């Protein structure tokens, strides 16, 4: 199966995203996508928050994964590492859907999307460029992936079992 990474998301892919958010057991277990992408209206509200979207697609243009970067400051938490909170103004998320999950595509998808994003005009306009994410502490494949990419845990798990991770090295500010 051939894959490619494309900026943005088509109407067809949005419909697939909405479906996966309701039917993919891993997405339902570890993310808020069933609420975030409940319907087209909720997707439109979410997208208005200045998201940079990259889609992983097959030859037919079917959605196999999605990555987004968004302008959003890291929320106040008790941090286990010393970070300068005001520098972390970009959030990150990745979803790999069941058709290709566990096939080793996530890290190359992340690397390429990161490269495209950090070369974009939108990225250049952001003053504080450090990147953070939120992940379930029991989502071991995601934790391993984020660690491999260079993210480190910066909070203890909260009551919902979520931790924040951040790119704290030079990779986060090209």
Your description of this structure?
The structure is a single chain. This protein is an alpha+beta fold. The protein has seven helices and seven strands; from the N terminus they run βααααβββααβαββ. The protein has a seven-stranded mixed sheet with strand order 1-2-3-4-5-7-6, with helices on both faces. β6 (about 150-155) and β7 form a beta hairpin. The radius of gyration is 16 Å and the shape is globular. The mean pLDDT is about 90.
**Fraction of helical residues:** 25-40%
Instruction: Output the strand order for the largest sheet.
Output: 1-2-3-4-5-7-6
**Which series of helices and strands comes N to C?**
EHHHHEEEHHEHEE
CA distance, first residue to last residue: 32 Å
Radius of gyration: 16 Å
Unreliable runs: none
Strand content: 25-35%
**Based on CA inertia axes, which overall geometry fits?**
globular
On the 0-100 scale, what is the average pLDDT?
92
Count every beta strand, where a strand is a DSSP E run of 2 or more residues.
7
- Please describe the biggest sheet, giving its number of strands, its sense, and whether it closes into a barrel: 7 strands, mixed
- Determine the number of helices (DSSP H or I, runs of at least 4 residues): 7
Structural class: alpha+beta
């Amino acid at each position: 199966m051939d894959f490619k990474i494309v900026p943005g998301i088509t109407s067809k892919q949005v419909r697939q995203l909405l479906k996966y958010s309701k039917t993919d057991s891993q997405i339902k277990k570890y993310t808020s996508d069933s609420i975030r992408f409940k319907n087209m209206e909720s997707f439109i509200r979410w997208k208005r928050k200045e998201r940079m979207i990259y889609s992983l697609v097959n030859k037919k243009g079917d959605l196999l994964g999605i990555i987004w970067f968004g302008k959003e400051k890291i929320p106040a938490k008790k941090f286990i590492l010393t970070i300068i909170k005001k520098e972390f103004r970009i959030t990150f998320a990745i979803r790999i859907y069941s058709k290709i999950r566990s096939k080793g595509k996530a890290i190359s998808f992340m690397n390429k999307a990161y490269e495209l994003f950090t070369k974009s005009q939108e990225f250049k306009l952001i003053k504080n460029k450090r990147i953070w994410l939120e992940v379930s502490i029991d989502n071991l494949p995601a934790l391993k992936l984020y660690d491999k990419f260079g993210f480190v845990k910066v909070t203890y798990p909260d009551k919902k079992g979520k931790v924040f991770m951040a790119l704290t090295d030079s990779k986060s500010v090209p």
